[in-house]
Amino acid sequence: MNKKKYNPPQKLSLNANYKSLKDYSEEHKRSLKENDVFWSEKAERIEWFKKWKKVSDIDFTLPKIEWFIGGKLNVSYNCIDRHIKNGKGDAIAFYWEGNDPSESKKLTYNQLYDKVCRFSNVLKNLNISKGDRVCLYMQMIPELPIAMLSCARIGAVHSAVFGAFSSDSLRDRINDSKCKLLITQDTGVRGTKNNIPMKSNADVAIEQSPSIENTIVVMRTGEKVHMKNKRDHWWHEQIDSVKPHCEPEHMDAEDPLFILYTSGSTGTPKGVMHTTGGYLLYADYTFSSIFDHKSSDIYWCTADIGWITGHSYITYGPLSNCATSVIFEGVPNYPDFGRFWDIVDKYQVSLFYTAPTALRALMKEGDSWAQSRDLSSLRVLGTVGEPIKEPEWKWYYKIIGSKKCPIVDTWWQTETGGIMISPLPGATPTKPGSATLPFFGVDPVLLDENGNEIIGNNKNGLLAMKSSWPGQMRTVYGDHQRFKETYFTQFKGYYFTGDGAKRDEDGYYFITGRVDDVLNVSGHRIGTAEVEGAIGKADGVAEAAVVGYNHDIKGQGIYAFVTLMTGIEVNSAIEMSIFKTVTKEIGPHAKPDKIQFTSGLPKTRSGKIMRRILRNIANSNLEDMGDISTLADPSVVDKLIKGDQK
Ligand code: PRX
Known about the structure:
The chain has 646 residues and is of the alpha/beta class. Helix content is 31%, strand content 23%. Among the domains are: 74-293 and 316-331, ANL, N-terminal domain (Rossmann fold, 3-Layer(aba) Sandwich), CATH 3.40.50.12780; 522-642, GMP Synthetase, Chain A, domain 3 (2-Layer Sandwich), CATH 3.30.300.30. A hairpin with a 4-residue loop joins strand 1 (54-59) and strand 2 (64-69). Helix 2 (21-33) packs across helix 3 and helix 7 packs across helix 8. The relative contact order is 0.11.
């Protein structure tokens, strides 16, 4: 492969937390060899009410994953109180930048303490206590991290649902974990959309969510919304009438901290469950090392808090490190394509973390948007969520980082809780497109289809983990068997990631993408089965098969092959009805980019759809369709290639 390497800038290495590849390699070896000793040393980074008795108890065959057994701590205490105790109360925790450039706020750690304590008391007044589930359905407003931290303070388990999900998706997630309380906002603003109906979506969801006792509504826009007497409460009214102190609950290291739903290749979304001690330590330590965080830094992660990146690297990791962060409500192209760079310039952002899809969208608009802003404050650039290709990597490096900022391409998953494979900015030479080397305590392997470890470099395989790390998910909420089947059954003794990867001659990992039926659309993880199910509910649709195809901006686009009921004609109304149904069932981010109507799908005699053929057609790889002799009707392939609808 032999790609050019980009060495860490000397100035950065000199003061970095890890200064050379040798430093990294020695520490990485030690972290695997003396795993428990390593993690018990690192666990001193956070403050415990009671020290753990045993560092870890792991058995992937059950699976059983426990870290810092017997330890007691509180995440909100670690993210706020201990910094105030250390004299940092006046430091800024968040700069909040509204969708409209004229709107902004800032919040010190002292102010965050006040808001979190008050809101914790509000939660208690509404009958929420340790172990109860609270659903958060909000846009990027300061009340979202405040609500997360308040749940953590009293031991309630939050379940954030990304603000673009439909009421049906929201309802299903509330019901799966039986949330008692829903926190939302009146309406939301994002780009030119200034009236996203959050509360009214929530109202529809709650009609079929019997576990919800109360809702709390943040007044974000002042739009008129329906408030049901006794059930619905305004955030601002509640928060004024409570005490400004709330003792943090002493939580067990293995008590649940949050649930976050994510899509798999089959079935309904899974409630990925993370616990308290291991998750916090892993988010804390990866943030500090991978962004080389210093107290003078201004950090900005452009992800949405409704996804794992926002949980670990907007809320918990940065706050645990007493960082100063920017939270941005809007989108990269509003009011124009210079918005990201205006924000970097305005707050003098030094650590910047974004997704390749955003870079591709911005790169397409030319260099002048970035070049007309002062980006000299930038020190480290990060990416997450999907493979970054060489053109956008180089653009990021040259145009945004002026060739002086290392790029940390961070590979991880909702399930892993924190970053697993990534350069360390002061230590690891980078290569475009490679997430490089495993983080401390992370032991990746490549497996072949039979589960044999592939030894040596310059090899391709299935990416799995040989041992546990503190940030690992502990279970699928309410379904431990599904946890076992999804991640630990195909390859015994390993955690299987669902991704494929290459390891080059230097042992660097290049993630090649999912090997299952999960799509990654603009960094959103979407199961093909979910989209197929949604399309199948549209009037007139007989069957649908969905695959991914290469998309210039989104990374992967959604390509749907659809057969209609006998007698139903293909027309634009049918197409509209499919879009509407998918938006209702899942949300607008899951709408197909292309629909191909067809009279039949390529099925084997046993009725299984051969997706390989559909993927080839969607990506215009028409030359080699491989073996099609097992198809019940091989002539379907020709019809699909020609685009015949009958
Ligand atoms: O396929 C990998 C891809 O995103 C998947 C995880 O998605 P999700 O759980 O939504 O978490 C995204 C944010 C952590 C992975 O299985 N992925 C994530 N980061 C990268 C990546 N693919 C390539 N390179 C990355 N840096």
